């Protein structure tokens, strides 16, 4: 078997595990889904799951990262804004909708983000630069402040009894208008 075939087989196994995990997390919830359940659904040995992912939390982080990248890519196709504040509002609308559809996962992701920020640092840096795409220059301080407003608004929303995207985007807009 060639290296390319081995890589392809490993990638297919990884994708099967991720697909099974996402489906089970949505059906049963993150806490109620075991790695054994995921391996069984993916039709792999339990140990195989751990050759691809450190643990169940790592698997969730990878899944969320993948889905967030997909949401951002979709929003990018609809992005016609020039000002970073308007771009933030546009992307936040798409991302907040995703987070609110997956509240349990989003809370787990944010807990990990607080203590394992390095895992998401590349994605966050890319996103900050995306907000300033088309402007004369990138402003690191404004980008960081906008991200702070974005995440604090998200945390507030995830803790609301009945969160909705429109309210979160309005709150975010009011905050970033002050920058």
Describe the structure.
- Helix 2 (35-42) crosses helix 3 (46-52).
- The model has no long low-confidence stretch (mean pLDDT 91).
- By secondary structure, this protein is mainly α.
- 79% of the residues lie in helices and 0% in strands.
- The longest helix is centred in the N-terminal third of the chain and has 26 residues, at 3-28.
List the keywords.
single chain; about 180 residues; mainly alpha; 9 helices; about 80% helix; globular
Helix vs. strand class: mainly alpha
Proportion in β-strands: under 5%
Low-confidence stretches: none
Gap between N and C termini, in Å?
Answer: 57 Å
Sheet bearing the most strands, described? none
What is the helical fraction, as a range of percent? over 70%
How many helical stretches?
9
Radius of gyration: 18 Å
E-strand count: 0
Shape: globular
Order of helices and strands: HHHHHHHHH
Mean pLDDT reading = 91
Summarize the structure.
By secondary structure, this protein is mostly helical. The chain contains nine helices and no strands.
Which helices and strands occur, and which strands form pairs?
Elements: H1 3-28, H2 35-42, H3 46-52, H4 56-77, H5 84-101, H6 103-115, H7 117-131, H8 140-158, H9 165-177
């Amino acid at each position: 078997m060639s290296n390319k075939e081995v890589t392809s087989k490993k990638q297919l196994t990884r994708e099967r595990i991720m697909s099974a995990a996402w489906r089970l997390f949505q059906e049963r919830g993150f806490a109620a889904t075991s790695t054994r359940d995921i391996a069984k659904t993916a039709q792999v040995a339990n140990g195989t799951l751990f050759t691809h992912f450190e643990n169940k939390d790592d698997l969730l982080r990878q899944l969320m990262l993948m889905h967030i990248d997909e949401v951002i890519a979709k929003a990018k196709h609809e992005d016609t804004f020039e000002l970073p504040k308007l771009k933030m509002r546009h992307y936040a609308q798409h991302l907040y909708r995703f987070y609110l559809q997956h509240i349990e996962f989003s809370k787990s992701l944010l807990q990990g983000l607080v203590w394992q920020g390095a895992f998401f640092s590349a994605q966050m840096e890319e996103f900050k630069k995306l907000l300033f795409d088309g402007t004369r220059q990138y402003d690191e301080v404004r980008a960081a402040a906008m991200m702070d407003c974005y995440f604090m608004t998200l945390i507030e929303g995830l803790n609301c009894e009945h969160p909705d995207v429109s309210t979160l985007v309005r709150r975010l807009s009011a905050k970033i208008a002050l920058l």
